[in-house]
Amino acid sequence: MVLSHAASDSDISVHSTFASRYVRTSLPRFRMPENSIPKEAAYQIINDELMLDGNPRLNLASFVTTWMEPECDKLIMSSINKNYVDMDEYPVTTELQNRCVNMIAHLFNAPLGETETAVGVGTVGSSEAIMLAGLAFKRKWQNKRRAEGKPFDKPNIVTGANVQVCWEKFARYFEVELKEVKLREGYYVMDPEQAVEMVDENTICVAAILGSTLNGEFEDVKLLNDLLVLKNKETGLDVPIHVDAASGGFIAPFIYPELEWDFRLPQVKSINVSGHKYGLVYAGIGWVVWRNKEDLPDELIFHINYLGADQPTFTLNFSKGSSQVIAQYYQLIRLGHEGYRNVMENCRENMIVLREGLEKTGRFNIVSKDEGIPLVAFSLKDNSSHTEFEISEMLRRYGWIVPAYTMPANAEHITVLRVVIREDFSRTLAERLVMDIEKVMHELDELPSRVIHKISLGELKSEDNGDNMVVTVKKSDIEKPKEINVKKKTDKPIFC
Amino acid sequence: MVLSKTASESDVSVHSTFASRYVRTSLPRFEMPENSIPKEAAYQIINDELMLDGNPRLNLASFVTTWMEPECDKLMMESINKNYVDMDEYPVTTELQNRCVNMIARLFNAPLGDGEAAVGVGTVGSSEAIMLAGLAFKRQWQNKRKAQGLPYDKPNIVTGANVQVCWEKFARYFEVELKEVKLREGYYVMDPEKAVEMVDENTICVAAILGSTLTGEFEDVKLLNDLLVEKNKETGWDTGIHVDAASGGFIAPFLYPELEWDFRLPLVKSINVSGHKYGLVYAGIGWVVWRTKSDLPDELIFHINYLGADQPTFTLNFSKGSSQVIAQYYQLIRLGFEGYRNVMDNCRENMMVLRQGLEKTGRFNIVSKEDGVPLVAFSLKDSSRHDEFEVAETLRRFGWIVPAYTMPADAQHVTVLRVVIREDFSRTLAERLVADFEKVLHELDTLPARVQAKMANGNANGVKKTEEETTREVTAYWKKFVEAKKSNKNRIC
């Protein structure tokens, strides 16, 4: 006697994923589901939702590496189950980290002897690296002030207003005052003279950036060093420099080797660099190196027993994956000086192609310089009818993610679009991007102007802008902001 | 005219890696090489060196997950080039994190309404999670003291001496005093009564551990809560509790659902759990959740503009991979309650198998309890001739990595071996491990006693000899022993 089964009762494993009931049920968002589901269904459902994320390689907003060779991918996958912190169990992985630290310290001209080991550590990114470096400066300064019998409760750090948000985090979480040198129109990095003026007895260090986030410029660390040496002489202080070379640390040594910004300058005591930016590794690896042992107070270091020998560690994170450390070592030996130089030169070439393409449209001012990080920051010559934010929005439809930002104080009226040239951004893509930007400009020219209230940022201004009045009504988080266009009658025809 | 080339000048791509010159040169260790090498050579050289690392799955020292399903590996590899912090570019990945936070908060019985969003964040591990939680407590306490016009320069935190090193890091880096409740022989967790006694006006919180690193024990958070409620009533303070559920957070809800340790207790304000331990994800993911918004001071939160809406963030790390967040979500929906329960039940079963196997040898005292994190911590009944460190060392030859530790103050004279039962430690492996332990004990029995200087970790009870002296001494013993053997038996090659 054959009993007919209802489809949903047949053995699950018979059904292809899209034939099964799993694609008919809504996934819980707030609570763990009670039952398990087959792994194929779990994979498919998540994979499909993730299709709606942006394409990492078209994400021109980020400095962070989005492509590595398949051989490296293979190494990464095979070490994905190694917990980096188990130094005793994975001695080779630990040694690879030590080799990377040494190579990077030498790259930055740390004053080390032939076989002397460098002082430094691998981190999860430049944020952790900066916090460690800042912590070292803070502790050194506190110890010195305590020894001198002076108050040590109000440490501060001097940086430019162009600093990346991790410096603000460091200041807020570790209770250090952030003294920012304001920018001005046309000068978007920290002014060394103003910085040195702001230094006082409570300054734990001055932080310079090699590769400003906003326009890729290298700050003049040499000038800062020289001015600071003078000030130190006058005041008897010993204020040091930290160089945030998150982006620039893997660029300057290869295409600007004569530029003095690293340990060649005596006041530079620590440097951080992101392995996952121009170190050419996927997200999740940074490095910090100190000039020498004295610059890292011993009381901050935890000594772990490692194979019977002492392995000093100084990190905020403990357990983490090993893959990125191994990938960094892969890149350092696979490419060598020659390879990195070639990659950086290619980036620079393609940056110039993009820059010239944009200049040729006649519609943009180029805000970034040719030297520095290979990126192009540009703003509209005329942003009265359409803004950079609208261009950014429309480019998304073509697949490109190009962010638009306003400058920090005191240049908030300037808005720029920024395209970062990474290793995997070829000339073909650069030319295609120029074409797509031209298409976008053409489209926008035909549209009536919107309110300049930065819809994509969700700010709630409503403005009366000449011919148009637009009011944005933002209800709740769930409802999208509604826009009511109220156009006054004009002489021009209206295109739909 | 054919010119013969020497091998090293032929087109490199012709040579197989092991035929090329790249395996003949020594890799630099201190400086970057000048030239590039082919990717195949780079891969092979690194891969080969890494063969000498331990096998992660035989690393019985670690709680951290060492195996995931191939489907999940696939998802991870596909998202390896996504920088998690680019929330605007990867909105789905960000939403997956938010879903995980909500699921975990509800797993811990956070007092949330049906569609109410939980307060929490994904981190790189419990270290970051604990630092964030500690920072929140510190700032809350400072604000309160400032408002009361009282001094706020000497914050302290009360924990047991059994805390994991990240609490010491938190204390040292964020300038908070660590007040540790000492252990004693036979009692290897924080005593709630002693802890509450140590609480004073400068205490920012009391940290309890659900799943002590040393013995896997769950601390009695309920008792701590009740005692602290009384103390708060007497003193007028409002000291809160943080539960470090790094290991236990993904075990207790499934194996011990009636155990009250989470937000069901009113003084528990924040909880951290490691996604990469019993959350069953590879290394690199942790979670911290707060009871309510008011437990996380707004001044610590950075507000990032995300798709026109506000995405509050509170992390120490910025750029990092997205793979582990996606993998955590995969596990939560793939397994569900049922699946996690099954895995934890299996771990507990296999833990019992190992425990009973070790007890049957008659040579060990079991220090760990049956309830708690599935692990077996045990010490030698008689460690006068050979100690636990030698057992650990000898076991390495069989491939197993089983660590030996001394207990912290005040039980430093106790040494334990500890085996952690993870998801991928099957019964077959447990039985094999017992068999190998027996072999090791048998070997050690036939060896003469070594110096009591604990060479493995460099602690010396008496005079600390140099490495050379100790080695010589051991070699001398071996020589005598081997000679004695030779004289009794026929020589067999």
From TrEMBL, chain A:
Catalysed reactions, as listed in the record: L-glutamate + H(+) = 4-aminobutanoate + CO2
Example GO molecular function: calmodulin binding
Record PTM N6-(pyridoxal phosphate)lysine, positions in chain: 277
Biological processes, Gene Ontology terms: L-glutamate catabolic process
E.C. number: 4.1.1.15
Highest taxon of source: Eukaryota
Requisite cofactors: pyridoxal 5'-phosphate
Keyword Endoplasmic reticulum part of the UniProt annotation: no
Taxonomic source organism: Brassica carinata
UniProt family annotation: Belongs to the group II decarboxylase family.
Entry annotated with the keyword ATP-binding: no
Keywords recorded for this protein, A-Z: Calmodulin-binding, Decarboxylase, Lyase, Pyridoxal phosphate
Listed name of the protein: Glutamate decarboxylase
Pfam families in the cross-refs: Pyridoxal_deC
GO cellular component: cytosol
UniProtKB/TrEMBL annotation, chain B:
Cofactor(s) it depends on: pyridoxal 5'-phosphate
The keyword Lyase belongs to this UniProt entry's keyword annotation: yes
PTM-bearing positions, type N6-(pyridoxal phosphate)lysine: 277
One GO CC annotation: cytosol
Catalysed reaction, written as an equation: L-glutamate + H(+) = 4-aminobutanoate + CO2
Keyword annotations: Calmodulin-binding, Decarboxylase, Lyase, Pyridoxal phosphate
Superkingdom field: Eukaryota
Transmembrane segments: none
UniProt xrefs under SUPFAM superfamilies: PLP-dependent transferases
EC number: 4.1.1.15
Pfam families named among the record's database cross-references: Pyridoxal_deC
EC supergroup of this enzyme: lyase
GO biological process, one term: L-glutamate catabolic process
Gene3D superfamilies noted in UniProt: 3.90.1150.160, 4.10.280.50, Type I PLP-dependent aspartate aminotransferase-like (Major domain)
GO molecular function: calmodulin binding; glutamate decarboxylase activity; pyridoxal phosphate binding
Family the entry assigns: Belongs to the group II decarboxylase family.
NCBIfam families: Glu-decarb-GAD
Annotated protein name in UniProt: Glutamate decarboxylase
Organism this protein belongs to: Brassica carinata
